[in-house]
């Protein structure tokens, strides 16, 4: 189970001590727009409301509305609980001092109540641990955003759309840079090398080289 917690605390235990005892991977992130995409592959989302109720409400409405994320559990204190309304869009709430057993039970109930998985979103591409959000122009590995240029993103996106297919350098030039581009195959090689560097040593094998032909994007172990 993967849980994302939005909080200004550096450690989940500082915001919700019971989170330290969950049999789950808890990713703790500050509530910044650049981090919102991390909810895409999360089983549940926790929002710490105690620092700013107004901003927590706006974030909850965004995640439950336009972003259509999974179940949202609000972390509240006594004052925050009294301020909760239906228009927040949250699935449930939990007191900051809740026991590990209560927190685990609430998360289990939320997962059971969640609607069944829908068809894959057309604006989201997945290749192993790599998740590309086409509309937000972001690419993530394990929730961490890759710092890509526009052309690097477009190249990665096109290869992901054609996952498993061998793409020639000429095809990549035409589709990503346009048929009027006067550069050569070297341009593709340079951008692929930069992409591999940004993917890191653990994931650079996503982009495989097909000698004398071009490149293919696939999850490691398949290439």
Short synopsis of the structure:
The protein is of the alpha/beta class.
Give your account of this protein's structure:
This protein folds into two domains: 2-113, Rossmann fold; 124-217, Winged helix-like DNA-binding domain superfamily/Winged helix DNA-binding domain (Arc Repressor Mutant, subunit A), CATH 1.10.10.10. Strand 11 (207-210) and strand 12 (214-217) form a beta hairpin. Residues 116-120 have low confidence and may be disordered. The strands form three sheets. It has a five-stranded parallel β-sheet with strand order 2-1-3-4-5, with helices on both faces. It is an alpha/beta fold and 223 residues long. It is elongated. Helix 5 packs across helix 6. It has helices at 12-15, 53-64, 78-83, 100-113, 150-161, 169-177, 185-199; strands at residues 2-6, 25-29, 44-48, 72-76, 92-95, 124-127, 130-133, 138-141, 144-145, 167-168, 207-210, 214-217. The chain is built from seven helices and twelve strands.
Average pLDDT value?
86
Distance linking N and C termini: 28 Å
Q: Count structural domains.
A: 2
Task: Name the overall outline.
Answer: elongated
The CATH architecture name of the largest domain reads 3-Layer(aba) Sandwich
Based on DSSP secondary structure assignment, what is the total number of beta strands? Answer: 12
The largest beta-sheet arranges its strands as: 2-1-3-4-5
- The secondary-structure element order is EHEEHEHEHEEEEHEHHEE
């Amino acid at each position: 189970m993967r849980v994302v917690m939005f909080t200004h605390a550096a450690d989940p235990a500082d915001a919700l001590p019971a989170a330290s005892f969950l049999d789950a991977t808890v990713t703790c992130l500050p509530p910044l727009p650049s981090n919102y995409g991390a909810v895409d592959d999360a089983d549940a989302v926790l929002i710490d409301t105690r620092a700013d109720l107004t901003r927590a409400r706006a974030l909850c409405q965004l995640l439950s509305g336009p972003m259509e994320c999974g179940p949202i559990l609000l972390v509240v204190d006594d004052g925050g609980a009294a301020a909760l309304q239906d228009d927040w869009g949250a699935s449930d709430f939990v007191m900051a001092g809740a026991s590990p057993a209560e927190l685990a039970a609430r998360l289990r109930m939320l997962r059971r109540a969640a609607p069944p998985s829908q068809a894959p979103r057309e604006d989201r591409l997945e290749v192993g641990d790599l998740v590309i959000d086409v509309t937000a122009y972001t690419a993530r590995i394990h929730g961490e955003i890759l710092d890509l240029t526009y052309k690097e993103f477009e190249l990665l996106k096109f290869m992901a759309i054609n996952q498993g297919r061998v793409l020639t350098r000429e095809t990549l030039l035409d589709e990503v840079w346009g048929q009027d581009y006067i550069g050569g195959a070297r341009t593709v090689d340079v951008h692929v090398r930069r992409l591999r560097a940004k993917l890191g040593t653990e994931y650079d094998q996503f982009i495989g080289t097909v000698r004398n032909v071009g490149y293919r994007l696939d999850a490691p172990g398949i290439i």
